[in-house]
C-alpha cells in the first residue's frame, strides 16, 4: 500500500504503491496507511523532513469512486472527511518540511494530498495532467481542494479547474502556482529532497502560505470588489448553463465564497458539509453509475461475446462519402486504419475526403494539429468508385441513401469482392437490420453500426444485432468500435432500434404539446430546464421535420391497421406537406433562420397552432399568450412529460429485449442524444424516483394524456415488490 523509508540524513520517503493496481487509488485503506506513515514520520525525532512520492507511473489519479458511490451514512462519512482534514492540517503545521514529488498525473484526491504538502516538484512529463475532475461526476474536491487551490492561485485561476474539472498540463500548473518547480523526468524526487534539505538547513518553520502571518488571497478574496464581481458573474453563468440541475458547481462556488471569507480551518469545515451533501445526493450517484462505471464497462467491452479472438483492423471500406461516410472515415483514419471511401463517382468520393480536409484544417488553425499530421491522416483515405478496391477489407460499412433497394445493391456489390470472413455493416438509422441482411449472402456477418452525427465527434455507436448476426461478428465489430475510440452499446433489432426510438419520443412530446396549444417558447424552454441540450421543437428542426414526417409515413405503411396515430404525426404532416416548412435544412421549420441574425420562432406558428394553454410558472415570465386560454399547465408537468415519455419507452425497450441491460440504456442516452447526466439516464431517472413514485406519476399522465404514458407491467411489478433497477 505504502513504502516507508528514512535515509542517512533523516529524510523520510513516503511512497504510495497501491497493491495489484496500475494506478494509486485514494480510499479509506490507502489514506489510513498514509495517515499512519505521516504520523510516524512527524513523531520520529530522527526524521527531519519528508518526501511524498509514488511508485507508479503517475502520482495519484483520483479517489475510489466505488467507495463514494456506496456511501450512505452521512454522519459517518462527514466524520471520516474531518479525519482527513485533521491529518492534512497536522502535516501542514507539523514543523517538518514536506515536499511532494509528482512524477505524473495528479488528479482529485491526489492533488489534494499534494496541495497539503509545503512544496510540489513535478516531472516535465508531457502526459501528466493536474486538476480536480470531481465536478464532472457531481462531486467536489472534498479534502480541502476548494480551499487550498484558490488560496494558492487566486479565485480566477482556480475557477475552471474546480467548476469545470479542467485538467491542465505541467507548464500551466507551474504558471498558475499550483506547483512550485518542474524538473527533468526522473529528477523530481531528488529535487523534492533537495528542497526539504534546504528547508531543514534554513531552520525556519515550514508553513503553507495561508498559515503565514499577513496572508492575502492572490488577486483578492470574495469580499473585495474584484472577487465580488467574479463570483456574481460565475453565479449567473452557472444558472444560465445548468438551470440549477447540477448541485456540484453551485456547492463549489459556495465553498469558495463562504470558505474564503474566513480562515482555512473554518473553510475546511464548510467544505466538509457541502461535500457530504453531494456524496449523499442522487445526482452524484447517478453520474458515477452512468458516466464512470457504466461507460468504463462499455469501453472495456464487458458484454463482448467470449472466446472470439480480438480482430485487428488494417483496411476498412466505406460505402457512401456523404456526411456520415466522411465522418466515419475520419474516425477510422485517426485510428491508423486505411479506409477505402467509395461513392458513385470518384468526384463524389473526393467530396468526402474534402470534408475531412476541411475539418482537420480547423484543428490546424486552432493549433491542435500539425499540417504533417493531417497529411498523414488524409493519406489513409482512398477515394474511389471501383468496388474492386474493397478487396482485403476486414470490414465494410455502408452509409448510402436510406433506401432499401440502394442498400441491397451496394451490399451485393461489396460482398462480391470482400473475403468470406469480412463483416458487412449498415449505418442505417431506421431500417431493421434483419430485413437489410436479406440482401446478404452471409447474414451471419451482417450487423448494424449506427453512428451519430457528426460521426467524427460523437462518442457513441449503437451496435444492432440482427436475427442471423453471429456472436463472432458482434465481438469483432465491438473491437472496431473500440479501436476508433468510441463507446459501443449493443441492442437487438427493432424499429428505430433503441436510440432513435426513445429520442423520437422527446421530439414527439414537444410536438404534442404544441398541438395542445402550449406556447412553443415555453415548450423549448422546458426542454432546457429539464436538462436536455436542445428544446424538442428546435431539435425537430435540426433533425428535420421532414424526417419525422417520413418515418411516420413509413411506420404507418409498415404497420397498417396496427398503427396508432400520434399528435406529432399530424403536426409534422401539417408543417411539411401543407406549409412546406421542413426544418433547418430548408431554412424554415418551427423556427425561422434569417441569414443576418439568430434563429427565432416562426411568427406564423401561432396562427397554425393557436395558444390555448396557459402556464402557471413563476420561472418563465414573459411568455406572450396569444389567443384564448382555456386550460393551464404547470412548467413542472411539461418537464415531467418530456422526461418520463423517454423513460417509459425505454422500459418497453427492456421488456421487448431491444435493450440487453438497463445501464446500456443510460449510457446510450447520455452519449447518443445528450440526455441529462444528472438524472442518470432514462432508467437512472426512474431509479431516482423509485419505481413506486414513477408508477404514480405515469398513471396520472396516462389518465390525462393517453396510453403513451401507460405503465408497463414490469415496472408495476417492480413497484409492488419494492424492487429497483440498480442495487
Ligand atoms: P448523405 O446523403 O449525406 O450521403 C449519402 C452518400 O451516399 C452520398 O454521398 C451518395 O452519393 C452516396 N450514395 C448513394 N448511392 C450510392 C451508391 N449506390 N453507391 C455508393 N454511394 C452511394 O447521407 P448521410 O446523412 O451520410 O446518411 C447516410 C446513411 O447514414 C443513411 O442510411 C442514414 O439513414 C444514416 N444515418 C444518418 C445520420 C445523420 O444524422 N445524417 C445518422 C445516423 C445514420
CATH third-tier fold name of the largest domain: 2-enoyl-CoA Hydratase, Chain A, domain 1
Using only C-alpha atoms, the radius of gyration works out to: 29 Å
Major sheet attributes: 8 strands, mixed
Strand order of the largest sheet: 12-11-10-13-14-15-16-17
Ligands bound here? nicotinamide-adenine-dinucleotide
Helix fraction bin: 40-55%
Number of strands: 21
| N-C termini distance | 29 Å
CATH superfamily of the largest domain: 2-enoyl-CoA Hydratase, Chain A, domain 1
Strand residues, percent? 5-15%
- Output mean pLDDT: 95
- Computed structural class: alpha/beta
Number of separate structural domains:
3
CATH architecture classification of the largest domain:
Alpha-Beta Complex
Shape: globular
Low-confidence stretches: none
Task: Indicate the CATH class of the largest domain.
Answer: Alpha Beta
How many alpha or pi helices? Answer: 29
